[in-house]
């Protein structure tokens, strides 16, 4: 285990905490631990048994798994490892796709597996009634889906059709608002909501076009939802991920060029993985991030801080 030294004693890193009702923060624990050496064994055993990112007894709905490359899959894996009980929704394209997603997610032991096209009001109502009757509560909501027509993800932005604009905004941004509105009565204080965004919301990224506008609407929605739901103890955040090769990103013209550019220019000289996004998601969806809401958190190997390309 990683350790550091507090007043000459080694103390486990903040990633673990104890669950004794006497102590509420790892930093307080450290000083009490130093003062009361007699409590050391109890404290150490407690630190071993309860990680800071602890999602045991949490019911987590994860949308947007299409295959093993999906960011939602990385998030679902991280949430399951932290102990959450999962509900999975999938876009019902056809039976073959449904079977593949079912097979992929079986090791995660989801207790709900529900088809849901966010464009279909009946699907959303069915989803909410299934959560209500099977779980009666929802602690975690992961919105990890987006869609735009391929022809709107290349070339001149001014050629975006009205129907293409509406489609992209509806699926990629409005669906978060609708999902929150339909499920918030199932959420208790301490619940947490997460969506996925991209740098193209705030800066021009070639070919991202209408999806950039949709992500800008999504990020603004995160702030308005966080403000509305905050008084009920519900948090809403977004992760802005670096470019990752997935089904959705393959539709964006020149995505491989963007990934290569990030690998050359991001401070970490690489892009990120689904699991890295998943790990940050687990943090944002857990009590460990209890003071964070309405934010866009970058998981992009640092690319967002760069103001110019590196000289190579
Ligand atoms: N891949 C990247 O580089 C990247 C970077 C930043 C943000 N994101 C965002 O991450 C999220 C997940 O995308 P991904 O890259 O993992 O790709 P993905 O193709 O694996 O996931 C997109 C998901 O959206 C679902 N979807 C599309 N239309 C839907 C509808 N009408 N109803 C319900 N579900 C629908 C698809 O079925 C799929 O599961 C998206 O919001 C995307 O914009 C991706």
UniProtKB/TrEMBL annotation:
Task: Tell me the GO molecular function terms.
Answer: enoyl-[acyl-carrier-protein] reductase (NADH) activity
| Pathway of action | Lipid metabolism; fatty acid biosynthesis
Kindly name one Pfam family recorded for this protein: adh_short_C2
Report the CDD domains cross-referenced here.
Answer: ENR_SDR
Name residues in a coiled coil. Answer: none
Q: Name one GO biological process term.
A: fatty acid biosynthetic process
InterPro entries named in the record: Enoyl-ACP_Rdtase_NADH (IPR014358), NAD(P)-bd_dom_sf (IPR036291), SDR_fam (IPR002347)
Keywords assigned = Fatty acid biosynthesis, Fatty acid metabolism, Lipid biosynthesis, Lipid metabolism, NAD, Oxidoreductase
Q: Does the keyword Lipid metabolism apply?
A: yes
What family does this chain come from, according to its entry? Belongs to the short-chain dehydrogenases/reductases (SDR) family. FabI subfamily.
Q: Which named protein is this?
A: Enoyl-[acyl-carrier-protein] reductase (NADH)
- Organism of this sequence: Galdieria partita
